[in-house]
Amino acid sequence: MGKSTDIARAKARRLKGMIKESDGIALENERLKAEGRKEQAEARREEALARTARAASDR
Where is the composition biased (Basic and acidic residues) (predicted)? Predict the structure, then answer.
């Protein structure tokens, strides 16, 4: 898959995590907040890897 697609997919996943975390805050649900934070962290890692791969292939 293309690097740009991987970056966009990671950003969408991070947004999903943000929504999940905000739902957890609104519902006072600690498990949901934690899941959202975890998903955001994983998505940030995936995005960084995709950006690194893209930069390496541009050289």
Answer: 36-49
